[in-house]
Write a structure and sequence with these properties.
Layout lengths: L2 E7 L3 H11 L5 E7 L24 E6 L9 E3 L2 E3 L2 H17 L13 E4 L4 E3 L13 E10 L4 E15 L6 H6 L22 E4 L3 E5 L4 H8 L5 H7 L6 H7 L1 E2 L16 E2 L1 E2 L7 H5 L13
Parallel strand pairs: 1-2, 1-6, 2-3, 8-10, 8-11
Antiparallel strand pairs: 4-5, 6-9, 7-11, 8-9, 9-14, 12-13
Length: about 300
């Protein structure tokens, strides 16, 4: 049985370096997919350089997507192509799904019993002390701690269910896997028989890893926010928000994870908490000095 770790890439070299080092002893293949288009539809240069990760080169399958999805909705005016505001979010979701689903074309090396895991680049599963031969569940979901700006600045309002996986024989698509509900439904929930997101046969991995969100400079965080799924909301809100540098200094975020998908998310401000190194993966504990600028040492 082999482990395939799959992720998408924009320009997160720091996170990819940390990811490879944390997961290397568990993972047989890393699949990294990069698109020539951001999730907001902007044409971008390719940023992944496999030579920066020479130690892991034999394990890496690097995939480039040259085209946008066929069903992107554009408007044409005076020979100029543009997106209407009401289409922006839907188009972003289509681009994200297109990038994730391309992974399916590169699983030829995997057997039906091999585990395929998908995470966004900054979601790293904790694979310590897991015997995958003992897992008989159809889907495995990792319950992760959420961090912002620094490796140990924790947002404790929610648990983050980022990394999800299953055996290759059970996979429908990577976007399907991403959308599976992070809940084990009881046997009497007959709606699970017809749902593609609700399942009874799910294993939740407690202490399942780390979601290191926005470990970037303020400038790079801004670039990410302007190109991610909710870029339309951020563009509307950013003039009224505190500066990103100020939020980092005050250890705060202005994003409500508990808001409904249809609600406005850039609203209330929430404080972050500094956690001890005991909550960090072994690789980071051993390399605090190397990554010192990405730790918060002030209580």
């Amino acid at each position: 049985m082999k482990i395939f770790d799959c992720t998408t890439f924009f320009n997160e070299n720091l996170m990819l370096e940390v990811r490879f080092n944390i997961l290397n002893k568990f993972v047989d293949k890393f699949i990294v997919v990069e698109s020539r288009y951001s999730h907001s539809g902007e044409k971008k240069q390719l940023n992944f350089d496999i030579n920066k990760f020479s130690e892991f080169k034999k394990k890496i399958i690097y995939v480039v997507i040259d085209n946008e999805p066929n069903d992107i909705v554009y408007q044409i005016k005076n020979d100029n192509k543009f997106e209407k505001k009401e289409d922006m979010r839907t188009n972003s979701i289509k681009r994200i799904a297109h990038q994730r689903n391309k992974i399916m074309d590169f699983l030829d090396e995997a057997s039906n019993e091999d585990f395929i895991f998908y995470s966004d680049n900054d979601e790293i599963p904790n694979l310590e002390n897991i015997n995958f031969d003992d897992i008989k569940n159809k889907i495995v979901i990792f319950k992760q701690k959420l961090f912002y700006y620094k490796f140990n600045l924790n947002c404790d309002r929610i648990d983050w269910f980022g990394t999800k996986g299953c055996e290759k024989k059970n996979i429908i698509s990577l976007s399907w896997l991403r959308e599976v509900k992070a809940k084990k439904y009881p046997f009497f929930r007959f709606d699970t028989l017809f749902s593609k997101t609700k399942y009874k046969n799910v294993k939740i991995i407690e202490d399942g890893g780390w979601h290191f969100s926005q470990l970037k400079t303020p400038k790079d965080i801004e670039i990410k926010l302007l190109n991610q799924e909710h870029h339309d909301e951020y563009r509307l809100a950013k003039e009224k928000l505190p500066s990103i540098a100020d939020l980092i200094k005050r250890k705060s975020i202005v994003y409500d994870h508990k808001a409904k998908s249809t609600d406005y998310k850039f609203s209330n401000e929430f404080k972050l908490k500094t956690l001890s190194l005991n909550h960090m993966p072994l690789f980071l504990k051993q390399n605090v000095k190397k990554y010192s600028e990405w730790f918060d040492f002030e209580k």
